[in-house]
Amino acid sequence: MHEGSVGVVKTKYFTFAEPPDDMELECGHKLGPVTLAYETYGTLDAGRSNAILIVHALSGDAHVAGYNAPSDKKPGWWDNMVGPGKAFDTRQYHVICSNIIGGCKGTTGPSSINPATGKPYGLSLPIITVKDMVRAQKRLIDHLGIEQLLCVVGGSMGGMQVLQWAVSYPDAVKLAIPIASTARLSPQAIAFDAVGRQAIMADPNWKDGDYYGGRAPVAGLAVARMVGHITYLSDKSMHQKFGRDLVGEPSYDFNIDFQVESYLGHQGDTFVKRFDANSYLYITKAMDYFDLAQEGGGSLQKALAGVKARFLVVSFTSDWLFPSYQSKEIVTALRRNNKDVSYAEIRSDYGHDAFLLEVEALSKLIVNFLHYARSEAGYHDAAV
Amino acid sequence: MHEGSVGVVKTKYFTFAEPPDDMELECGHKLGPVTLAYETYGTLDAGRSNAILIVHALSGDAHVAGYNAPSDKKPGWWDNMVGPGKAFDTRQYHVICSNIIGGCKGTTGPSSINPATGKPYGLSLPIITVKDMVRAQKRLIDHLGIEQLLCVVGGSMGGMQVLQWAVSYPDAVKLAIPIASTARLSPQAIAFDAVGRQAIMADPNWKDGDYYGGRAPVAGLAVARMVGHITYLSDKSMHQKFGRDLVGEPSYDFNIDFQVESYLGHQGDTFVKRFDANSYLYITKAMDYFDLAQEGGGSLQKALAGVKARFLVVSFTSDWLFPSYQSKEIVTALRRNNKDVSYAEIRSDYGHDAFLLEVEALSKLIVNFLHYARSEAGYHDAAV
After folding, report:
1. I need a surface site. Which of B218, B224, B311, B367 has the fewest CB within 10 A?
2. How many CB atoms are closer than 10 A to CB B250?
């Protein structure tokens, strides 16, 4: 199933809103102009009915598959799922992936230049919510001339966006696939986010977010990333991957001794080269604030009452950051509304990271879901 | 059962080793003189047979019960377990609690003055292991004229010391009670420790540990403590304790929004007032290095082959830092050696912190264990 690559793709940019058409954010402030980075793969069919929007997690970007340049060593972040013959088969589907606002990968975020000052926004960027991210994506989809997405799919915070899409724009989403996600973070997950933010803000180079052009708070950001990485793995996968193996003889000092320390250190070091600390603050805050039940006055069931999408909800047994019980809450709320929902809990030791790693199991589920939904749609169309 | 207080107690100090009698540490370096802070409660009986040694966890100290001054607002850290009529009944037992070397509560550690230089050790203090901690405690027990402890008991890292006591000094330990403990940390637990250390060492005030007399790396230490605290609670207890409750209206900035953030922030802030960052490094490193199986050439069963103590091993269902499977490994290894071992897994939502909170269940188990063991001993004595 994992055959071809989409090859070399170019990131595109869509900018909307000169005043007075600034984007109104959930926090009450306005933002504009807003630029979204996005990529597309495959061809939009004549009926504009085969578009799939992939929405990404905390540290993702628009570059979901293929290579941005022939010299690139690594493909996009979900390359094993997107391409000819893969789960999101680019021979059949027009795949779109949009970077989120608040991020640092080409979309308007804290490191972007504020046109009003000519300087990076820093903390003058208003707080962004998941709903804001989705609203901006809707502008992009409108711009692309697509009235209804065949599918919106994403893992982790991507799944939050999927849920928000289905609630905010019920007519624009035919199929929804939230993977390893939740309608709201647990207090434990909020706590981990809060610690990561504290680590960044405790870094003297952070300077209240006004560090652009100077030294970035890389030490704090590295600690935040290390904390995050622990929560993406499972106890079992860490046993399998590292055990208590040492990198050499015991150092008998405070250098790195264990393989797991070396791995985390490496994750921290590479992350700070590709990610902006302020974006880490904005995006984790968006995740913490996200609570879909608020759309229903505190009731998740009410929040989901108006969705029209058919759902495939997927969770992983060893995911303790977005545990299965949270996916089940979504499934229950949908079923109580008599919505069409399939649920799969995939047996995996990979923890939260499973949504990036369990390609085989995920592909099978998704291919069947897309196929079934399309043929059902065809059947209905024929019956009408 | 939780009747009386031991009242006002005074911390005592025991110093051993003028050269050439310096303490030889596991890392190969020597340390001396070494001072241990300790407290005692209750009366040692004529046969010196009723002494119970309590060993503490990461941030504990010698002050396990009662008050150091009449004006103290808070009693010792396990006051609900130690005192007249309590689990460790000071009317029956002579209770001793010793602070660990490497710590910062009166026992020789990185903040102590190095007599060779007249300045605090800082990182010139050699790495301390759990075995070293126990060896120093053995010197104290010898000094107190006690040949055999009726019982050694402790939770978390205290449990590691209990295990080491039983292995290093089999004739000196009659009963051993490791609670919420392990024969070795999981890679996940090592990872959390490593992140805490990184947070401290990334604080520019840390200065390679040479910060005494100047500004301490309190921001880094606070982050380390916050990470630690998340691992001491359970997902469920955090739901019960905080849920997703806000402290007020959403701030729409990076100030504290959620109750759980406020709690963690408070834990971090108060911890830095009472704990030394370097001690945090030394003690977490000791925990990471601890691997009892090494005493048996890699086999836990062999490591425990020579113990003579009768064991009560206790774990808690929701403890994911020192999970029950780790206690079961100890129990299995003991049973394969035909040792006398009781095991209790206490149903609790409190996570790792349960060893400090499940007073009722713990007291019952411990009172019965001590009582049974003593009456058995009496029976054996009579039969001889």
Report:
1. B367
2. 15
Contact residues on chain A for B272, CB-CB shorter than 8 A: none
- A253 and A162 Cβ atoms separated by less than 8 Å: no
- Give the one of B187, B197, B239 whose C-beta lies nearest to A186's C-beta: B239
Q: Which residues of A are catalytic?
A: 156, 319, 352
Instruction: Report the distance separating Cα B333 and Cα B323, nearest Å.
Output: 16
* Cβ contact A197–B254 (<8 Å): yes
Q: Give yes or no: residues A101 and A30 share one domain.
A: yes
* Same domain, yes or no: A168 and A149: yes
- Least CB–CB distance from B220: residue in A127, A202, A227: A202
**Total structural domains within chain A:** 2
CB of A104 within 8 A of CB of A61?
no
Contact B238 A285 (CB under 8 A): no
- Mind listing the pLDDT tens digit for each residue in A84-136? 999 999 999 999 999 999 999 999 999 999 999 999 999 999 999 999 999 99
CATH number at residue B197: 1.10.1740.110
User: Do B244 and B143 reside in the same domain of the chain?
Assistant: no
Same domain, B297 and B265: no
- Co-location of A309 and A163 in the same domain: yes
- Given a cut of 50, whether residue B136 has pLDDT beyond it is yes
pLDDT score recorded for residue B19: 66
Contact A178/B at CB under 8 A: no
Verify that A117 and A169 share a domain, yes or no: yes
Instruction: Tell me the residue range of the domain where A260 lies.
Output: 190-283
B7 within a domain of the structure (yes/no)? no
The ipTM estimated for the assembled molecules is 0.94
Per-residue model confidence as pLDDT tens digits over B301-344: 999 999 999 999 999 999 999 999 999 999 999 999 999 999 99
At A377 the pLDDT is 58
Q: Quick check: A295 and A170 in contact, CB under 8 A?
A: no
Chain-chain contact of A190 with B285 (C-beta, under 8 angstroms): no
Rounded-to-integer distance, Cα B289 and Cα B197, Å: 14
Tell whether A256 and A197 lie within a shared domain.
yes
User: Residue A1's pLDDT is what?
Assistant: 45
The verdict on whether omega for the bond into residue B33 sits within 30 degrees of 0, i.e. cis, is yes
Tell whether A86 and A127 lie within a shared domain. Answer: yes
A252 chain-B contacts, CB cut-off 8 A:
27-28, 126-127
